[in-house]
Design goal:
about 375 residues, about 0% strand, 16 helices
Length: about 375
């Protein structure tokens, strides 16, 4: 089955109906959901074409992971297709330096496909069975097929970018290749965190977690904005500033994701309540809580170190202790610090003011999602 034309085109007016509160922005330009929808609509035809170039079987799994269909290629009109944040950052990166958003479409497609590739492999490594309130690809198709689909997405991402016309294609491919190295490094650190103790000299400290989040989450967000600017003809300093802004956004984004992983509403996150605690993941709220002094921190450490499962009332108690020990407040402060740093990066180089407002609206939108 080919997916070159199967996903129905989604117009900006039809997209992004996830939340009433999402429809407002005080950025002084287009509301953020409209910006996201505009960028998705611009990128969509080339993204569909790229997936359509794959072998039909991994192409089907790619389409499933993108929310275009259900298992086996069946229609699934209720599936989430995501916000398209990385696509938007690439398009806005080009527009911020005075180029047409169309210039950045190959970059937007490449980073989106790399993002989906990373999710397919991460879900396998983490054992996650659901994403966006549906089965993950490995759960629906099997581990081997999901690995294959991820590999196919990575290959077509690099091919799409390498075929971009113009003198800057070589620099763009090198930029993406360096990002892939950082992605692997971040994922490696995240996996290694699982074997480290909760307390003591070998415990994961906030600075180590911050570095991991910048590599695992921030590097691709930074790459998206930087690649858009690069293909748009920006000088190296401007490309670097947009890349840094995206990396700071990634740390802030990961902090908010960690909050939602403990205290988020499952109906909105698509994840089970207290899911990260149940799996004893070393997320920023827990790491920050364990670095504080006091009874809540010590009791939380004892719960996490216990061989007993963290479910039901025990997981709720752990979440309460993490908040009492300052983990929630520290994580929000971490997110805000990196958001401020992202804003500073954008203000430090000459960029189109209206597009900067759109990017800043996107940053604020991501930080304040349901927290």
């Amino acid at each position: 089955m080919s997916f070159a034309t199967s996903p129905a085109h989604t117009s900006p007016a039809e997209s992004e109906s996830e939340s009433e509160s999402d429809s407002e922005s005080d950025s002084g330009s287009a509301p953020t959901p409209l910006t996201l929808a505009r960028c998705r609509a611009l990128v969509r035809p080339t993204l569909v074409e790229a997936v359509g170039r794959l072998h039909p079987w991994p192409g089907e799994m790619a389409a499933f992971s993108l929310g275009w269909c259900g298992p086996g290629g069946t229609p699934d009109p209720g599936a989430s297709q995501g916000k398209g944040v990385r696509q938007a950052l690439a398009v806005l990166g080009a527009e911020a330096v005075g180029a047409s958003g169309e210039t950045a479409v190959p970059a937007a497609v490449a980073v989106e496909l790399v993002h989906v590739f990373s999710l397919l492999h991460d879900d396998i490594m983490d054992g996650d069975e659901t994403r966006r309130q549906r089965e993950t690809v490995w759960k629906a198709y099997g581990t081997g097929p999901a690995v294959l689909a991820g590999d196919a997405l990575l290959a077509i991402a690099l091919q799409t970018l390498s075929e971009t016309p113009g003198a800057r294609v070589g620099a763009a491919v090198r930029h993406l290749s360096g990002t892939l190295t950082r992605l692997v490094r971040g994922q490696a650190e995240d996996l290694l965190f699982a074997d480290r103790p909760w307390t003591g000299p070998g415990a994961v400290r906030p600075e180590a977690y911050r570095s991991m989040a910048e590599d695992k989450t921030g590097s691709l967000l930074g790459c998206a904005a930087g690649l858009g600017a690069l293909l748009g003809g920006a000088p190296a300093g401007t490309v670097a500033a947009l890349d840094r802004a995206g990396r700071h956004l990634g740390v802030a984004f990961q902090a908010v994701d960690d909050l939602l992983g403990i205290w988020g509403d499952p109906a909105r996150t698509g994840k089970p309540v207290h899911g990260d605690l149940r799996q004893r993941r070393k997320t920023y709220p827990v790491i920050a809580a364990l670095t504080s002094d006091g009874l809540p921190s010590r009791e939380l450490a004892a719960l996490l170190a216990s061989p007993l499962p963290l479910d039901g009332p025990t997981a709720l108690r752990a979440a309460t202790l993490a908040e009492a020990a300052g983990g929630r407040a520290a994580t929000l402060a971490e997110a805000r610090r990196h958001l401020d740093s992202a804003h500073a990066c954008l203000r430090g180089v000459p960029l189109a003011p209206r597009t900067v407002r759109e990017i800043e609206g996107l940053l604020d939108f991501l930080l304040h999602r349901n927290v």
